[in-house]
Amino acid sequence: xxxxxxxxxxxxxxxxxxxxxxxxxxxxxxxxxxxxxxxxxxxxxxxxxxxxxxxxxxxxxxxxxxxxxxxxxxxxxxxxxxxxxxxxxxxxxxxxxxxxxxxxxxxxxxxxxxxxxxxxxxxxxxxxxxxxxxxxxxxxxxxxxxxxxxxxxxxxxxxxxxxxxxxxxxxxxxxxxxxxxxxxxxxxxxxxxxxxxxxxxxxxxxxxxxxxxxxxxxxxxxxxxxxxxxxxxxxxxxxxxxxxxxxxxxxxxxxxxxxxxxxxxxxxxxxxxxxxxxxxxxxxxxxxxxxxxxxxxxxxxxxxxxxxxxxxxxxxxxxxxxxxxxxxxxxxxxxxxxxxxxx
Length: 343
Prior knowledge:
The chain has 12 helices and 8 strands.
């Protein structure tokens, strides 16, 4: 096609065509160069803008980095302050806990001190009351006389052997004399028996003996004389003189005597209780019968004392009191040996 164009055109037309093409090429190159320069300038401008923005970003990044470091420092300082505050709070809490425990201990000590003081005051008050009671009893004992007790003649007659033994002195304590006298006079009130013994006796703590007051002894006849402090009958005087003429043996040991009497009564009580356990009760006529007295080697006084202490009466029979429900086991040799070893 181009060959046909070149063959069919003249040189001038070809020259004009070439010039036209050359101008078009130059123009196109110029435009392209201008575009390239414009693009280059735009790129340079954009590059400068980007570099500026990058610089700004780097600056901002440095600033932010510094701010971050500062913030981190502040955070570390705050954390350290927080740790210190927590440590201080823990120390304060421990200190408060210690102070609370100390206050609690002090309160407990104070309460115990107050309690001990109250107990001590109570004991002192009890001791003072006991002392006042003793002084009152001593004063009453001084004011009390045998005449004021108004002892019946039968009771005085029962006391004559004991008074004679007291005149000769007996081994033991005042409580042993009380116990012995209570067995002699079971029908009298315990307070009357106690006051009677207190009025007629005189303790010798050094020798461990109890004797009769010198005011109640007739030294000429060498017998008991109660006429100075109470009205006595001729029968009582005769009994006192008769008791003084009996031969004097060894000094009476009231503690040992009371112990043997207690063992005898306990043995009798075991037999009576066995009967009651077997049959459920015991008739009054059987309990106080002559056969029972001979078997138990007791008299009416002993049987009445046992019945009063351990039994209760239901019409014509006697039954165990509610609290008396078990039989005492007799002490065996092994038990006694064990008690000796423990002692």
